[in-house]
Design a protein that fits this description.
Largest sheet: 7 strands, mixed
Order of helices and strands: HEEEHHHEHEHEHEHEEEHHHEEHEEEH
Shape: globular
Number of strands: 15
Length: 432
């Protein structure tokens, strides 16, 4: 009776029915344990089985399970959460709209940008520029921003007004001679703005670290230059922090690594550690002022915006993140994971790149290390390595032949060691 996300019947024959979880471990219905190498879908940062979060949800459900957040109504957890977020996020961002997840957050940003520029007297500024390998959700508009082509074919035509530029992808981006790779990659945005016309471009949407696209960490000079270009051409910089937010990269929010503030940032996933479907956007004071100045209502709304249970779980989860210092844990454990991956795998003939930031890492497998030639997709090398890893008790996700790792922040050093050993053994089994 069930249609799966990314439904593919042939792939379901070897699937899992997950039954329980504790910490960084998932247990299937046969009782076999697996290290959760991707924290669910990048989101279960606090680990599985946190009674504090279950109790926060139950307490709120027993008091006020749901109420409308539409004009003139709200609830105490929503009001408190918006204030907490204002104290944690980028200094200029103090106003928040809540959604049920990352895709809704992307759509909210697109609509916000259009309405913002209309209210500023620039109704032609509607286009969205995003990047190859960027992932921003799969609603029709969010899918059109997503730069992973495998999501498109069955649902074409995509929404008009979405443009993609190359990813900074340090392992593969080719910069002109004499130009820093990061600056050259950032200048792809300027080229696109000029080609489309600055008066038509509303926003640039980018993950600080591209997650589902293969944990692509940008060069140090990339985002400072992006900020300059957005300011020069009057384009909103929207940071998609659905994966990178709330400590995953070693900072509360990832653009802090490069001293850059966005105009808007999107969040979801880790805000509740996946215990409740929840997300949102935060907007700069300048955007909020324009939003407040209009006499007509801003006609954007979801039934579950500012859901009281989601807000209550988010508040309790943020308390856990603070008390257990997830940013510091991610920084330290991520550095250890990256060092272990590099020392164990970097010399393998088919490991082209090992990369990461905080507790987000990836291993890119290639046919030829010298030329960086990729395997033919028909060989399904990544899928075979993933299957071998599951046999040994590690479950994660791929982007082609890029094996991604982003476990719960509560993972132990011993579990990190086991995770690396399993991946190394699996690569050896398939490729040696």
């Amino acid at each position: 009776h069930l249609i799966h996300p990314l439904h593919q019947p042939a792939a379901h024959t070897n699937g899992h029915v997950w039954a329980e979880g504790h910490g960084a471990i998932l247990v299937d219905s046969d009782g076999k344990e697996y290290i959760d190498g991707l924290a669910g879908l990048w989101n279960v940062v606090a680990g599985h089985g946190r009674r504090e979060l279950a109790e926060a949800a139950a307490a709120q459900m027993s008091t006020l399970a749901y109420c409308s957040g539409y004009t003139g109504s709200s609830n105490r957890p929503a009001i408190e959460l918006s204030g907490r977020l204002a104290s944690l996020t980028y200094p200029s961002i103090n106003r928040f709209f809540f959604t049920s997840g990352g895709g809704e957050s992307s759509d909210t940003s697109f609509k916000l940008a259009r309405s913002y520029w209309k209210r500023r007297g620039k109704p032609g500024k509607t286009k969205v520029i995003s990047r190859q390998w960027g992932y921003h959700g799969v609603t029709l508009a969010a899918m059109s921003a997503t730069g992973i082509g495998s999501y498109w074919p069955e649902f074409e035509p995509r929404v008009d007004g979405f443009v993609h530029i190359p990813s900074p992808y340090p392992y593969r981006y080719e910069a002109p001679k004499g130009v820093s790779q990061g600056i050259a990659a950032a200048n792809e945005l300027e080229k696109a703005i000029l080609q489309e016309g600055p008066d038509s471009v509303a926003m640039f949407l980018a993950e600080p670290v591209q997650g589902a696209g293969g944990v692509i960490v940008p060069q140090a000079d990339y985002f400072p230059r992006i900020r300059e270009i957005c300011d020069q051409y009057d384009v909103l910089l929207v940071a998609d922090e659905v994966i990178t937010g709330f400590g995953r990269t070693g900072k509360w929010f990832a653009l802090d690594h490069w001293g850059v503030e966005p105009d808007v940032f999107q969040f979801a996933k880790a805000v509740t550690s996946g215990y409740f479907p929840f997300g949102g956007i935060g907007v700069s004071d300048a955007i909020a002022d324009v939003l407040d100045s209009g006499e007509a209502p801003w006609m954007h709304a979801y039934t579950y915006s500012a859901h009281p249970v989601g807000c209550a779980v988010a508040l309790r989860n943020i308390q856990i993140i603070e008390e257990e210092n997830f940013p510091k844990q991610s920084e330290e454990k991520g550095a250890y994971l990256l060092e272990r991956l590099q020392s164990t795998l970097a010399n393998h003939a088919n490991v082209g790149d090992v990369r990461g930031l905080g507790l987000m890492c990836a291993v890119e497998l290639v046919r030829d290390k010298d030329t960086r030639e990729e395997f033919d997709p028909k060989e399904k090398i990544g899928i075979k390595v993933h299957a071998a890893a599951q046999q040994r008790g590690l479950f994660s996700r791929l982007r082609g032949d890029v094996f991604c790792l982003a476990p719960p922040v509560v993972i132990s050093t011993e579990q990190i060691d086991k995770m690396v050993d399993i991946l190394a053994q699996s690569i050896t089994e398939i490729l040696d």
